Structure formats: structure tokens, C-alpha cells
């Protein structure tokens, strides 16, 4: 049964009813009923237009206890009721991560130091121990997220399972425990965690689909389900009443058409709860199971909508505690022509916010997106590609230790007589400036190229033993001979609907292909194996990203591991001399000649 058809059908019937009133009733009554009708149409649309026949499958769908618990925001409504006597923060959801709780709450302008986590034993005897939050962040227009550490002790004698709550410092009292008990945290293994509007469709990000990796899956058995905001107040109809079919499914992403009722008014979709379901079982008894969800439909647009021309070139990246690398990376690439930066921050606690704000205030157009969803790099890139599409013709996906380098520009620079003959289409006075933007702009009118690939050279520690103060481009000058991998810059409007991407490469729309830049014209310097201090941190990051448990010798052959490093984070012999086959000072010379302060020799990204 197609709910959209039913919906239209019922809508027609309702129009009939109104007509009937028109003929038989007095005008006052007509006005009144028409008003009611409008009210239903605007607020309670789903309820009256769509009542799915409760087949056994929809029954299990609506009444499975796992999904019921996520329907009606009891935490929120309770908070509202009891706020005068107890806690003022209004919680929406909790998610249990491997080493912390994530709490989603209504937007409050709160700083990390203003909030604490409180833990209760559930049989109600304790008054609750407290700990400071790990972080407190703005998430989107209507929500914030806080991360709470696990409670100190987990002794089963004190009542077993503990619940966590949030309160402002200094606040006393507590929430009704019987309500908290009914809302145990969602498991991060299986949950719809984010959703975005994209034209006539909604893109839902889901953990736990267990789809074939790196492949587009068959969407037939999947649907999206929409919960109407106005319903959770009474709790009764607080369910996902509208559902639509999926049009594409891959990795962690399910894309569905929007219900008709919100398609024409996308702003009505904002904040609507959404989840996905999968049909399984055999032909005789099919079961549709809804996944738990903390997702609400957010807009696909970035905060400041661009009225003017799109940016030619933007960059998306995901970071975790790499704040110190940002300045050099952003300042250098902005000079090469990157105009807008989307930094997806995965739970950093190294003051990245200050670095981002500082760069942004200097005109680099940098924004930080809080992305608390661990091990979701591909999904994060898909999310960023969607966000960037409104504003950018091209989006690059590369890491903060990767630097584009144009060997020819160096040659030109070193031969001053030649500099005026720069063939670049832009009228820049300095050779090399905006050269990355020129490369992509050259393909902007192409009808076949949607991705530009650039090969990477992997640099080693280059004999250093401590982090180069002037920057990685100056410090690291020895690398492996042959290039590894490719980095891609894509046209976000020409990506496949599935948003499928594997190691930074997106599936392109039918009929489009990628272009490999010749290595002699542009290459990426990847400062992959830095001094041990830096590499060790990266090693843990990588390992956490790709390997289930890094201490179990898994993925030993993976490219993300340093050859010969094994699974121990102990400095190998002669680390500083490794990965050094070719001396390559090209980018160093170039950067020094363009960026170094003539008087002091210091680089603009060095901290003063
Ligand atoms: C506490 O202990 C229980 C049972 O021993 C275990 O299932 C649970 O995961 C533990 N919780 C934490 C936060 O460590
Ligand atoms: C809570 O549980 C503990 C251990 O199970 C028990 O000793 C204690 O009496 C309980 N308190 C209440 C108020 O039920
Ligand atoms: C807590 O909520 C339950 C219903 O969920 C209610 O029966 C109980 O009276 C409430 N307790 C307090 C102290 O408000
Ligand atoms: C969806 O259902 C199919 C059976 O129809 C099952 O094999 C598959 O594992 C299910 N996928 C998810 C994500 O639950
Ligand atoms: C930042 O964006 C503005 C327009 O919004 C643009 O004029 C400016 O050049 C951008 N900054 C950089 C460093 O590209
Ligand atoms: C533009 O791209 C073409 C390949 O399609 C290439 O031959 C040409 O050199 C490029 N021009 C510039 C200025 O990069
Ligand atoms: C994000 O950070 C967490 C640690 O908070 C780490 O375990 C995870 O692997 C990181 N994920 C990505 C994609 O960087």
C-alpha cells in the first residue's frame, strides 16, 4: 500500500465533505468547519489523512517497544512539567557510545563549564553523583549536544543500571526517575542519527544497517517514517504516521521521497522526526522494523545562504584534535584559491573552536560543524557534500596534513624572466596564487568531468626529531619515491544520489567521470609520517578510525598502517630516517619565498 496515494485519496474525500457543508449549512457553520479543516490540514494532517491499516507488519512497527520508546519525547515533556521545581534543561535523547554518553538537548546557550552530568542508581536511593561534561556544543538551529563520561563506579550493589542526567551547576533537585528509567540511552550500534532535506527528498543517516560495504544497495525494502512534531504533546498519536519509499540506499545513508504534505512546504519539514525501516522475513510473514531514531530533519543549507555567485572552490575535512595543523593548511590553501572551509569536528578537545573563529574573523570563511558521530567519516563527507552544494561549484576532500603543490609554479618563480608568461586564465600577479582554483575552474563547464584526482607523495620524518616550528611544508623535505593514492575534488551537484563514497572518492552521476591531473603539473604533498610525537597521535586516530581493536593485530596489511609499525605505539628504531627515498624541497622553497616575513623570516601561521 502506498501511503502517498492513500493520503491523496483521503484528501479528495475530505474536500468532498467540505463541499457538502457548503451546500447544507449556514455560513457561520461553514466558516467554522472550514477553519477546523485548515487547522487539520496544517497541523494534524497525518492524523486525519492517513491511517494505515494495521496489518501485522505495521502493528509490529507501531508497537514494538524499541520504537515506542523513541516516539514521544517523555524526557522533554516531563522537563517542561516539572521545571519549576527541578531541572531546567530540556533533554531530547541519549545515546550510549563506547566510552561516553551523548545527550541531545533543546538549544541552550551554555558553555561547557556551566553544565554537569548527574548519575543516579535507579532504585532511587542515591541523590546522584556528578561529573563535569566532557563537552557542550551547539549542534544545529534547535539543538545542542553534551557528552558525559561514564560514572566512576559501576558496582551492581548500588542498584545496577545507572542513568545520566544533565543539570546546570548549582541546580538542585532531579527529574522523575521513573521517567528516566523508561528512557534508557539508545545504543550507538543501531540508530538513525541525522537527517537532511535535499530537494524533494530527505537524506537519513543511519548506524547499523549492515549493508554491503562500498556498494549501492537495493532500496526496495526500505522506507522512511516521519513523526509530526505537534503530536508528542499528548503522547497518544506520537508515532511515525507518514511513510515514504526509499529511492537510494548505500553505506549509512537512506534517501527517501518527502511526503506530499511537506514536499510543497519544505520549511514544515524542519525539525520533523524521521527514521527508517527495513522489511525482512519471508514471503508469508514479513516484518517491518523501525530503527530507533534521534534524527530530526535539518535544512540542507549552510547557515549563511549565498545570494551571489557560488564559490568556485570549497573544502570539506574531518578532524579530531588537529587544531594546531589548521592555520598553515588553511592559510596556504586559501592563497591557492580555496574560498570556503567546512571543518567537521569529531569531538576535539584541543581548542579548535578558537582557531576556527580566529581564522574566520580574518576572512578565511571557516566554519566548524560539530559531528559527534564517531566512525562515520564517509557519512560525514556525504553530509558535507550536501551542505556545500548550495554554495560551491567544487569541493575538495583532503586531510589537514595534505598540501597541494604546483611544481611548475616553482620553476616559473625561480626564473623571474618567465613569470609574466603565466598561462593561467586568471589575472594574478604572483605566479601560483589561486592556481588550484584555476585548475578546477578550467573544468567547471565540462560536460563529462565531475571529479579531479591528484596523486600524493608521502613524506617521512625527514630526519627531524621535533615538530617543525615554521610548519610542515618547511620542515619535511624527504619522501617516498612513488606516489600513493589520489585526492579528489568533486562537483557536488554531480554526485550519485546515494552519496556513496569510499576513501574520499564519490560515486559520480551516470555519464560523468574523473580526470587524473598529470603528476608533473600538480601533486599533493602528504606529510604522512611526521616526527614520532605527531605521528603517534595520528596513529591512534587512524587506528581508532579504521580498526575495531587496534591491539588485536587486525588490518595489518592496511595502507593506513605504517609499514613495519605493528600494533605497538612505541617509537621504532630510526623512525626519523624512515620513508625517505627522495629529497624534495620544492614546496619548502616555494612557500619560503612567498610567505616568509622578509624581516624576521617567520611564517604567517606561526603563533606569535
Ligand atoms: C556496568 O556493568 C554492567 C554489568 O556488569 C555492564 O553491562 C555495563 O556495560 C557497565 N556500564 C558501564 C558504563 O561500564
Ligand atoms: C537499592 O538497591 C540496593 C541493592 O540492590 C538495596 O540495598 C537498597 O536497599 C535499594 N534501595 C531502595 C530504596 O530500594
Ligand atoms: C513520576 O512519574 C510517574 C509517571 O510516569 C508518576 O506516576 C509519579 O507520580 C511521578 N513521581 C513524581 C515524584 O512526580
Ligand atoms: C533487511 O532485511 C533483509 C531481509 O529482507 C535482511 O537480510 C537485512 O539484513 C535487513 N537489513 C537491515 C539493515 O536490517
Ligand atoms: C570569503 O567569502 C567572501 C564572500 O562571501 C569572499 O569575497 C572572500 O574572498 C572569501 N575569502 C577567501 C579567503 O577566499
Ligand atoms: C584545462 O584542461 C585541459 C584538459 O581538459 C588541459 O589540457 C589544459 O591545459 C587546462 N588548462 C589550464 C589553464 O589548466
Ligand atoms: C572520532 O573521534 C573518536 C574519539 O572521540 C574516534 O574514536 C573516532 O574514530 C573518530 N572518528 C573519525 C571518523 O575520525
TrEMBL record:
GO MF annotation terms: glycosyltransferase activity
Gene Ontology cellular component list: cytoplasm; membrane
Keywords: Glycosyltransferase, Membrane, Transferase, Transmembrane, Transmembrane helix
InterPro entries: Glyco_transf_92
Coiled-coil positions: none
Subcellular location: Membrane
Transmembrane segments: 21-41
Disordered: annotated span: 413-433
EC number: 2.4.1.-
Record's compositionally biased regions (Low complexity): 419-429
Membrane topology value: Single-pass membrane protein
Family membership noted in the UniProt record: Belongs to the glycosyltransferase 92 family.
Record's protein name: Glycosyltransferase family 92 protein
Amino acid at each position: 500500500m502506498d501511503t502517498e496515494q492513500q493520503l491523496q485519496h483521503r484528501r479528495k474525500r475530505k474536500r468532498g465533505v467540505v463541499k457538502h457543508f457548503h451546500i447544507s449549512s449556514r455560513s457561520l457553520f461553514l466558516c467554522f468547519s472550514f477553519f477546523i479543516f485548515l487547522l487539520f490540514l496544517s497541523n494534524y494532517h497525518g492524523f486525519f489523512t492517513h491511517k494505515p491499516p494495521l496489518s501485522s507488519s505495521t502493528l509490529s512497527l507501531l508497537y514494538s517497544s524499541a520504537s515506542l520508546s523513541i516516539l514521544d519525547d517523555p524526557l522533554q515533556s516531563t522537563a517542561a512539567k516539572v521545571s519549576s521545581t527541578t531541572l531546567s534543561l530540556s533533554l531530547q535523547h541519549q545515546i550510549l557510545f563506547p566510552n561516553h554518553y551523548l545527550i541531545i538537548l533543546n538549544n541552550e546557550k551554555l558553555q561547557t563549564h556551566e553544565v554537569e552530568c548527574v548519575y543516579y542508581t535507579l532504585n532511587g536511593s542515591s541523590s546522584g553523583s556528578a561529573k563535569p561534561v566532557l563537552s557542550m556544543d551547539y549542534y544545529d538551529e534547535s539543538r545542542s549536544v553534551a557528552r558525559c563520561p561514564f560514572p566512576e563506579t559501576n558496582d551492581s550493589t548500588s542498584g545496577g543500571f545507572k542513568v545520566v542526567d544533565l543539570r546546570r551547576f548549582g541546580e538542585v533537585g532531579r527529574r522523575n526517575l521513573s521517567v528516566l528509567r523508561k528512557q534508557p540511552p539508545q545504543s550507538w550500534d543501531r540508530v538513525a542519527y541525522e537527517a537532511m532535506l535535499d530537494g524533494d527528498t530527505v537524506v537519513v543517516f543511519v548506524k547499523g544497517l549492515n549493508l554491503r560495504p562500498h556498494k549501492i544497495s537495493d532500496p526496495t525494502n526500505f522506507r522512511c517514517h516521519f513523526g509530526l512534531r505537534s503530536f508528542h504533546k499528548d503522547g497518544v498519536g506520537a508515532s511515525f504516521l507518514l511513510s515514504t519509499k526509499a529511492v537510494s540506499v548505500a553505506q549509512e545513508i537512506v534517501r527517501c521521497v518527502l511526503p506530499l504534505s511537506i514536499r510543497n512546504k519544505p520549511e514544515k519539514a524542519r525539525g520533523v522526526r524521521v527514521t527508517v525501516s527495513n522489511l525482512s522475513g519471508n514471503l508469508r510473514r514479513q516484518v517491518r522494523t523501525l530503527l530507533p531514531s534521534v534524527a530530526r530533519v535539518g535544512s540542507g543549507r549552510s547557515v549563511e545562504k549565498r545570494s551571489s555567485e557560488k564559490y568556485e572552490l570549497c573544502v570539506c575535512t574531518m578532524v579530531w584534535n588537529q587544531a594546531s595543523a589548521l592555520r598553515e593548511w588553511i592559510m596556504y590553501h586559501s592563497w591557492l584559491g580555496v574560498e570556503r572551509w567546512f571543518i567537521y569536528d569529531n569531538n576535539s578537545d584541543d581548542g579548535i573552536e578558537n582557531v576556527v573563529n580566529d581564522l574566520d574573523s580574518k576572512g578565511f570563511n571557516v566554519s566548524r560543524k560539530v559531528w559527534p558521530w564517531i566512525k562515520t567519516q564517509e557519512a560525514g563527507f556525504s553530509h558535507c557534500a550536501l551542505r556545500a552544494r548550495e554554495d560551491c561549484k567544487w569541493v575538495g576532500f583532503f586531510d589537514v596534513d595534505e598540501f597541494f603543490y604546483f611544481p611548475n609554479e616553482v620553476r616559473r618563480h625561480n626564473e623571474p624572466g618567465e613569470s609574466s608568461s603565466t598561462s593561467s586564465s586568471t589575472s594574478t600577479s604572483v605566479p601560483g596564487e589561486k592556481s588550484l582554483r584555476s585548475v578546477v575552474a578550467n573544468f567547471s563547464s565540462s560536460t563529462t568531468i565531475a571529479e579531479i584526482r591528484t596523486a600524493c607523495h608521502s613524506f617521512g620524518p625527514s630526519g627531524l626529531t621535533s615538530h617543525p616550528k615554521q610548519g610542515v611544508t618547511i620542515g619535511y623535505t624527504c619522501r617516498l619515491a612513488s606516489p600513493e593514492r589520489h585526492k579528489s575534488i568533486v562537483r557536488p551537484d554531480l554526485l550519485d544520489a546515494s552519496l556513496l563514497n569510499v576513501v574520499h572518492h564519490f560515486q559520480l552521476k551516470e555519464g560523468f567521470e574523473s580526470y587524473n591531473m598529470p603528476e608533473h603539473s600538480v601533486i599533493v604533498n602528504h606529510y604522512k609520517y611526521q616526527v614520532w610525537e605527531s605521528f603517534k597521535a595520528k596513529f591512534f586516530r587512524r587506528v581508532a578510525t579504521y580498526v575495531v581493536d587496534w591491539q588485536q593485530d587486525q588490518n595489518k596489511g592496511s595502507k593506513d598502517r605504517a609499514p613495519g609499525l605493528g600494533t605497538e605505539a612505541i617509537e621504532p628504531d630510526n623512525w626519523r630516517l624512515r620513508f625517505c627515498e627522495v629529497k624534495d624541497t620544492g614546496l619548502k622553497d616555494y612557500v619560503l619565498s612567498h610567505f616568509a616575513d622578509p624581516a624576521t623570516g617567520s611564517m604567517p601561521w606561526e603563533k606569535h
